Amino acid sequence: MTNIRVHDWVLDVDLEATKEAYAQKADCCLCEECQNFRYVTEQMSAEIIASAARLGIDLLNPCRISAFEVEGEKIMYTGHYCLQGKIIEGELDAWDIVVGEHCFSLMNEGDVTKPFTGETFEIAFEVVLPKVTIME
Fold first, then answer.
1. For the whole prediction, is pTM greater than 0.90?
2. Domain residue limits, the chain
3. Where are the strands (E) in the chain, listed by range?
4. So which domain of life are we looking at (predicted)?
């Protein structure tokens, strides 16, 4: 387990178990909204990609994701990432960390869709991203 400080949060994360759970990508949704999320997320700033990697999560592969079209050819995404470990410090259910366009919140309840072997917690997210045409 590794203690990681992220702003006002202190998280005790099993990095290897978290990375291993995210390495299994068999259940990636192929709907248009999820493909858009992955495509636009891949183009994001190094800051948000590095923040996710530091925690062992795959930013492109959330445990849960919902998409809602909003004005101006944009999509609001909400969802969460699971991590194996526990929360040491940090306010729950408060959108208290903003990185770029992303808002993040800690959550204790779990909707775990990845193969974790121990105690888990969630980092919920909300972000509005552009809707793009993906060329294959």
1. no
2. 2-130
3. 2-6, 9-13, 64-70, 74-89, 97-99, 102-107, 120-130
4. Bacteria
